[in-house]
Amino acid sequence: MTAPHPRLSINQATVKYAPLAEALRVTADAGITSIGLWRDSVQAASLPAAARLLADSGLRFSSLCRGGFFTVPEGHARRAAMDDNRKAIEEAAQLAASGAPGSAPVLVMVAGGLPQGSKDVAGARDMVQDALAELVPEAQAAGVTLALEPLHPMYASDRAVISTLKQALDLAAPFSPATVGVVVDTFHVWWDPELSAQIARAGAEGRIASYQVCDWATPLAADVLLSRHYPGDGVIDFARITAEVEAAGYAGDVEVEIFNQEIWDTAPATAVARTVEGFEATVAAHLGHGAEVRR
Amino acid sequence: MTAPHPRLSINQATVKYAPLAEALRVTADAGITSIGLWRDSVQAASLPAAARLLADSGLRFSSLCRGGFFTVPEGHARRAAMDDNRKAIEEAAQLAASGAPGSAPVLVMVAGGLPQGSKDVAGARDMVQDALAELVPEAQAAGVTLALEPLHPMYASDRAVISTLKQALDLAAPFSPATVGVVVDTFHVWWDPELSAQIARAGAEGRIASYQVCDWATPLAADVLLSRHYPGDGVIDFARITAEVEAAGYAGDVEVEIFNQEIWDTAPATAVARTVEGFEATVAAHLGHGAEVRR
Asked: Lower CB density within 10 Å: C or N end of chain B?
């Protein structure tokens, strides 16, 4: 077996049922050198233990999923959400420091949907902007990049009122690109007629903090959250989008993040092997080898 | 019972299982004065018979659903699609001539998804542009407006590569607004951060050919096509969007078009009564009485 592309990273969600130690092991065993982690798994192990496991694995850390869920009116619930985001910033900083050289102190942020009972999508978007402004000083102090992830518009009401790369970039605009960036996730943005232009803009503004890949296929799963597929198993043009992200100057790791019950029901090592196969066939050829000197 | 708002129109899909005669009857019986028809139902009755039934009903005709499905490479299949669209143009013209005064010669157009095996969404969009250019002279001669309907991005791969109002307006731009317009369907566009601006643009360009309303609620139905709800049963801000469409100068009928298995499983008269109730509570107050003199 030849080694997978050096920029491939397994997002832990792809092997959701593997505890942290196993996720790290199956990733490293496949010759992959980077992993993106999820907070529930990190917290289940405890942050210090997770950081040690990560350090021992020799893997780079490519992102922490996820902060956000900011669309809560002011009050106790919003304060709790902000405190939780502060904790997530600390976690991302510590994990990035514990990963192999080239680890990225990136915290993926999902905006949150409409507040309960609300129909005010513009107001919900303002809540995201306000929350960012509040968190930026702490993220900056911790050296963490808050990476806003636009989600597919089918999640706009219950998960993320930020639906396009343009919106995410507009929200990020007031802040330093070192502190507020964006995620380009092919599943969420492939359909967007403005995608090429906004990827180029994101590059010019230095804001691409993460590039995540998985495929789109129909019919969608009954639970639309679980409709993600291995690269190559759907209709997304990874050659084009990857070349655009590359041309925009992104030189970091590329995560494969898949929510799919069938994939979760396979052995983690099998899911990782299939991920490598799909990535090598559809994405790898369009990627450079990344920054010679990483952060 | 007070009469429903004079601009309310029942889109026949809302009472999908009612044959044409019954759909016309339950609509008129509810005091509604307008209906949008579907081609399968018109053809099941035959076009001349459908036109007679419509004329006898005394209802206005607000649109024919639907033409389009243009994303087919050149060859027999594309020629068949174009011929079918020519037939749809004739049907729309004849039905509009048979409806009560104020009927609208509008043919709703759904673009079509990615061609089988293709990942080229930009190429598919070009196929839509080419097809429009081919059909415009015939639509113009027939006095029919081809109304491009952007569909929610969750249908981009299998149903409509036109996902936003901006895209639809850009596609329509080369043609006269009397011949190529757009549909604003709340279900498809409510999430769009550019919506207000694009509705205003559509109005300024004289392109709003149809305004359709139904609501968005989660979780989505297992078949995402069937996730539409009565106005008021979801999260869409009909007050805002309706006011924007009104301010943009749209003075035509407002169709309620709902695909929902539970609603289809109720008696048509019940579905119509519930439609009136939802429309009156959420949409009607934000509508004027329309053009004094209709087309």
From this structure: N
Task: Provide φ and ψ at B294, rounded to 5°.
Answer: -85, 170
Burial A216-247 (b: 16+ CB within 10 A, else e): bbbebbeebeebbbbbbbbbbbbebbbebbbe
* Cβ contacts of A88 within 8 Å, gap of 6 or more: A39, A64, A66, A67, A107
Which chain A residues are Cβ-neighbours of B167 within 8 angstroms? 193
Tell me the pLDDT band of B290, cut-offs 50, 70 and 90.
confident
Which of B224, B228, B244, B283 is the best residue to mutate to test the A interface, defined by the most A CB atoms within 10 Å of its own CB?
B224
Q: Tell whether A235 is within 8 A of chain B (Cβ).
A: yes
- B117 part of contact set with chain A, CB < 8 Å: no
Residues with Cβ within 8 Å of B130's Cβ and at least 6 positions away in sequence, in order, are B70
Q: Distance (Å) from the C-alpha of residue A130 to the closest C-alpha of chain B?
A: 17
- CB atoms B119 and A224 under 8 Å: no
Calculate the CA A57 to chain-centre distance. 21
Q: Per-residue pLDDT tens for B245-274?
A: 999 999 999 999 999 999 999 999 999 999
Interface test with A, best of B154, B196, B216 (most A CBs within 10 A): B154
pLDDT category of residue A288 using cuts at 50, 70 and 90: confident
From A118, A193, A234, residue closest to B167, measured CB to CB = A193
Query: Which residues, at least 6 apart from A2, have a Cβ–Cβ distance to it below 8 Å?
Result: none
The predicted structure's pLDDT at residue A1 = 60
On whether the pTM is more than 0.90, the answer is: yes
- A63: nearest Cα among A91, A22, A26, A32: A91
Q: How many CB contacts within 8 angstroms connect chain A with chain B?
A: 76
Round to whole Å and give the CA distance between A55 and A53. 5
Q: What is the pLDDT of residue B289?
A: 78
d(CA A217, CA B60): 40
Other CB atoms within a 10 A radius of the CB of residue A263 amount to 23
CA distance A284 to chain B (A): 18
Q: Is B182 helix (H, G, I), strand (E, B) or coil?
A: strand
Is A163 close to B191, i.e. CB distance below 8 A?
Answer: yes
Residue A291: what pLDDT?
Answer: 58
Segment A67-81 shows an average pLDDT of 96
